[in-house]
Design brief:
Elements (H helix, E strand, L loop, with lengths): L1 H17 L4 H6 L5 E8 L3 E2 L3 H10 L3 E4 L6 E2 L4 E8 H32 L5 E3 L9 H10 L13 E3 L1 H7 L2 H11 L6 E5 L2 H10 L3 E5 L3 H13 L7 E5 L4 H8 L5 E3 L2 H4 L6 E7 L1
Parallel strand pairs: 6-11, 7-8, 8-9, 9-10, 10-11
Antiparallel strand pairs: 1-5, 1-12, 2-4, 3-5
Length: about 280
């Protein structure tokens, strides 16, 4: 069922791009002409969502040979896949396939960079809900392929109490109390805090996960120390978020937290560059 929904989503994007038909292909090509398209990398990076693209192309009637699978590293001139089939249909699909592969691979590449630079420090690298509308599945999947953690897919995955929630409710403690009393036992309660003191308050109130948001590495260290002194550090997962990038990830990972979550790996990842080389079968 999941793959059917993904196929329909990509089909909708194709309709947006094509309209009624590809006017150029209609003017140039006759019927029953078959070609081979080779998707070629022009960048260094990690490829992602190859399996989803292969499934879509297969359903559209193409023969697909995958030469670089999800998670493989590519360099310029590497061939990712070969696509054989109807000429007009391939030209209709070309830009959509390249755009999706480029964006997903960019997300996977940025994620892997963060994972690689922090892997010896024992932290998870996680995404956030900062995703482009319509692309969440592909971006979260790319994070997984890059070695990261997807975090929440939707608002109904878990409870994450943010600063604006706390402003309305009145306090960290009251927000956690309400969440614990009303939520299903299968839902973890995470709370976003902005100081070591709020982190301690959240831990005492029974939070499962504490996110220190937009704080300095020194403040994170202070929070870890407060929780350790109170005997609560081992009872919570400690996450840090806000401005986490490649250049500062190692400094934050060295503070003693469990998770680094970063929005830039999805919303700001630089797309990889791919092109398609077409030849007659």
């Amino acid at each position: 069922m999941a793959m059917e929904l993904i196929f329909q989503k990509v089909l909708d994007w194709l309709q947006e791009d094509v309209g009624i038909w590809d006017e150029t292909s209609r003017a140039l090509f006759g019927e029953d002409l078959r070609v081979t398209g080779r998707v070629v990398s022009n960048s260094w990076g990690v490829v992602a969502c190859v399996s989803e693209i292969r499934d879509f192309l297969s359903r559209m009637g193409f023969e697909v040979t995958v030469l670089k699978k999800d998670g493989d590293e590519v360099k310029p001139k590497d061939v990712v896949m070969e696509i054989r089939g109807d000429t007009k249909r391939l030209f209709e699909l070309e830009r959509l396939v390249l755009n999706l592969l480029a964006h997903a691979s960019g997300v996977a590449t940025e994620t892997k960079k963060l994972v690689d630079v922090t892997k010896d420090l024992g932290v998870k690298v996680a995404a956030t809900r900062k995703t482009l509308p319509g692309l969440r599945y592909f971006e979260k999947r790319a994070v997984l392929i890059g070695g990261g953690d997807p975090h929440r897919f939707n608002l109904d995955d878990s409870i994450l109490i943010k600063d604006n929630h706390i402003k309305v409710v009145g306090s960290v403690e009251e927000a956690i109390r309400r969440a614990k009393s009303r939520a299903s036992f299968v839902k973890k309660v995470e709370v976003e805090v902005s100081s070591p003191e709020e982190a301690l308050e959240a831990a005492r109130a029974g939070a499962d996960i504490i996110m220190l948001d937009n704080v300095t590495p020194e403040a994170v260290k202070s929070a870890v120390r407060l929780l350790e002194e109170a005997g609560l550090r081992g009872k919570v997962v400690l996450e840090v978020s806000g401005g986490i990038r490649l250049e500062n990830a190692r400094e934050y990972a060295s503070t003693g937290v469990d998770v680094l979550s970063s929005g830039y790996i999805t919303i700001s990842a630089q797309a990889l560059d791919f092109s398609m080389e077409v030849s007659k079968c």
